[in-house]
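Protein modeling request. Please complete all fields; requests missing the sequence field cannot be processed.
Requester role: graduate student
Desired output: 3D structure, C-alpha cell encoding
Chains: 1
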Amino acid sequence: MITSIANTAPQTNKYFPALTGLRYVAALMVFFYHLVPELPLRTTTSITWAIRLIQQGYIGVNIFFVLSGFLITTRYLNRILMTAPWFWSYLQNRFARIYPVYLLLTVFTFGVMILRPISNYYEWPATYRALDKVTVLFLNLTLTRAYFQELSLIGVPTAWTLTVEETFYVCAPFLLIGIRRNFHRIYLYPLLFFAIGSALVAFCSHYLPYYGLMNNLTFMGSDTFFGRCVEFLVGMALGYWVAHPRRIMQPRFCVKATWLGSAGVVVGMICMAMIEYTFPSQSVTHLVALRLMTNILLPIPIAAMIWGLITEHTWLQRILSTKTFDVLGKGSYGFYLLHLGATDLIFSHFITGHWAGRLVGYTLLSIALYKGVEHPLNRRLRYKTLTNQR
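Delivered output (390 residues):
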C-alpha cells in the first residue's frame, strides 16, 4: 500500500535521504559487476543467467548520472546568475565535492604504480617515456583523461566517469538557462552534443591522434558526455518537473512510480543480458542495441524510480532513508572509487580477497574517507555563499 505525498511539490533545496541511500545501492551494483566472472556467450543454465543479470550492474553508473542531472537541476535551476563570480563559485563547489577523495586515491595509485609496478591494466605501459608519464599524470589530475581511449582506465579505474561528470558540471548552468527560458530545448540538446562529439571524433582522430583522443564513435558514445548526455538530461527533466509545483501530479493521478521504475530497471537489465547473449560481441547490432538501451531507454525508468522515492511512502523509501543508508550513501563516492585498482589489489593481497571481506572493508574505509576527508574538506573548500550543495 502506497500513500502518496505528491500533493505538494518537493522543495528544491530539500535534502532527499532516500536518494543518498540509492547512491550506495548504485555503488554496490558496480561492485558486484566487477566481481562476477565473464561467461561463455552460449551458456544457458539458470545460474549463468543470474550471473548475466549481475553483470549488468554497471548501470549503477547510469543511476549516478541521472541523479547528477536531477540534483544539479533542483538546486540551481532558479538560482543561476550567469556572471563570472557566480560561475567560478559554482565550479569551486563542484571541485570541493569530488576532488579531495579523488586526489588522495590518485596520489596513492600513482605512488604504488611507481614504487611497485606490476603491469596491471590501470598502470601506464612499460614502454611509456617520461613525457608520456607526465602527460598521464596531468590528465588524471585535471580529470580529463577519459577523453583519451588509451588512458581512460589508467589511474583510479572507475574515475573515468568523473570526466563525464566534470563535462556535465561545466555545461549544466548553460543548459539550465536554456530550459528555464524554453523547456523544449532539452529535446535538442542530445542532438547538439552528439553532433559536437561526432565532429570532435572526425577532427581528433585525423589531426590529433594522440593516446586515442576521441578516437571513434563507439568510444564517444559509451565513455564521454557527448554520448552519455541523455542520462543527465533525463535527470534534468525530472528536476525541472519537481521545481514547478503546477506540473506535479495530484494524488488521484499518481501511479506507483517507485515500483514501476524499479521494474523498468530490472526489465532493462534483462534486455541488456539478452542483447549480450543474442548478438556477437562488438558487432554493429550489439553495439547499437546496447547503447540504445543503456544511454537512451534505461534513464527513463531510473527517473521514474527517483520520482517515486521522493514522492511516495514505500518500504523501499523508508529503508533507503534510514540513518544506516544515509551514512552508507554518503560514503558511496569513496566506495565507488576505491573498490577497483591499486587499493583493491593491496587490500586483496594483504587482508583478504574474499568478496564479503572486501565489501565490508571497502564500506568501512569509504565511511572513514567521508568523515575524515571528503566532508571536512568539502566544507572548507566550497564557496561559502552557495548553499545546499550535494
